[in-house]
Description:
Elements: E1 8-9, H1 20-28, H2 40-53, E2 57-61, H3 64-75, E3 81-85, H4 89-92, H5 97-102, E4 105-109, H6 118-124, E5 135-141, H7 152-164, E6 169-172, H8 176-183, H9 187-191, E7 196-200, E8 211-215, H10 217-229, H11 238-250, H12 255-271, E9 285-289, H13 296-305, E10 308-309, E11 313-315, E12 318-322, H14 329-340
Parallel strand pairs: 1-10, 3-4, 3-5, 5-6, 6-7
Antiparallel strand pairs: 2-8, 7-8, 9-12, 11-12
Helix pairs in contact: 1-11, 2-11, 3-10, 6-7, 12-14
Amino acid sequence: MKRLYKNIDLRSDTVTMPTEEMRKAMAEAEVGDDVYKNDPTVTKLEKLAANIVGKEAALFTPSGTMANQLAIMTHTTRGQEIILGFHSHIAENEVGGAAIISQVNFKTIDNTNQFISAKEVKERIREDNIHYPETGLICLENALGNGMVLPLENMKEIYETAKEKKIPVHLDGARIFNAALYLGVEAKELAKYTDSLMFCVSKGLSAPIGSLLCGSAEFIEKARKNRKLLGGGMRQAGVIAAAGIIALETMINRLGEDHLNAKILAKGLKDLGFKVDLENVHINMVFFETEENFEQDKFKSYMIENGVVVSGAYSGNINRFVTHSGITREDVETVLKLIEKFDRK
């Protein structure tokens, strides 16, 4: 495949470039007006997405953040409370949107590995009491932001707990196909323990833009109106939806390459003396810990000067590298040789 990347970019899988096939499909896309529901390419993408995760319907959105916020907005009413992970993307990286848009509270669960159990969820579901807000939604994330995958049994038990209490479950599945690959199942196996979910066709699937919110036909119809309210109604969106179709048809099955490259990168970093928990490298993310006196800024500059783009410290003395379609096995070897030559004294 023609190399589309000037540098080796390990910051995130959000930096992926559309493939030549995607670019051709975008140029030739048949379009209409999606607000009127007559863009055939958007309709095709939404039907394909819904089918892949086993839901009745899907809605194309510009971003995963919008899809998550639409789910919260559609499931809840003002003043309710949602249960979610303390470090989840919705809680930490969506600019407090749930408070601004849906006016709901967070009831968070904080665990070292970020896994959430049914027991912890049950403990946080509000009883009927005049002093308490009502629990309106449970939000899960899989794969997690720390690169680990929530076990399928956890999702099943939480979903069953939620059904007993008649509370809907939404899944932030931005990297659901990575999670499914790690678990050895199809994405619809994760999706069946949810009432709604979103996933990105960007990130590891390499489309330039877009996410899909999936759920029942009734839920998606309500979410469609809410999308319009938020300014997310798109017109000739088939131009970008075309890339999403190619992403779903051609890029899911190659994610294993990213996972393998991540494991090789993690093993190499460990061999170089960095602290890496190899058991926690579940998908395409590698977290490694440096020494306390490690010069992060110097390291970042050194890598960039040598053609490897990194973010620097992810948190404290923790760094994160992410493999993706733009990272080859040779790139991994280049990165490790480069780091080996870095003066860490």
